Amino acid sequence: MPGKIRVQRSGPLAEIVFDHPERRNAITADMWRAIPEIARELDADDGVRVVLLRGAGDVAFVSGADISQFKQERTGAEAGRYEEENTTAFDALSSIGKPVLAAIHGFCIGGGCAIALTADLRYCAEDAVFAIPAARLGLGYNAAGIATLTRIVGEPRAKEIFMTARRFDAHEAHAMGLVNGVLPKAELDAFVLKIVEQIADNAPLTLHAAKTAFRDLARPESERRPDEVREAIRRCIDSHDYAEGVQAFLEKRRPEFQGR
Question: How far apart are CA 41 and CA 96, in angstroms?
């Protein structure tokens, strides 16, 4: 069966599921093309407070781009378009203004790593395996992807990942900061759902403002947008949720945030 991307919703949670189990959830060209619209729709949906990225099943998160398509989609004149579509997909996931988590079982290789790096928080099972094997394929890797990895794990580790192209296990990934935590395989999904619940209980506008600030700090200083950050903070101060949060604190009760 051809790969596809499914969206599953449950209350405030929307899951983006990379569904191509025959190829360990490798991403086809059509799947790359589908990502931007899905990301924009979830970002615009006020009913969604948290987005979770995961692979279908528990064998792989994403094992990379579908190499069986490379001769057709990633050579000659088509290569430039393919790279643009990849970049657009990564940018769309990174631009989601809500908290994005990744639950990683098994293989998280190449483009799978790049997808996982678009998440704000990443948790993996003990059987997770990470690698960026571009140097084993002769591929050039775009500077934005290298910059993101370097920001997360530091330059020495990023160079090791790219230059050796070797595989790293879950505990190595945790030690270098690539993931936030490592769980026994049978416990990962339940643990991540608890994190989702904790996040979804918080004020959406506050989380959006924080993410706006984090995203701005990731830009080169000359490209930062302090006005966007200030506007996100102002929306919090002027919001119903801020008044609700203060009142709930004074009344010693749980706040009921509405995202407005």
Answer: 10
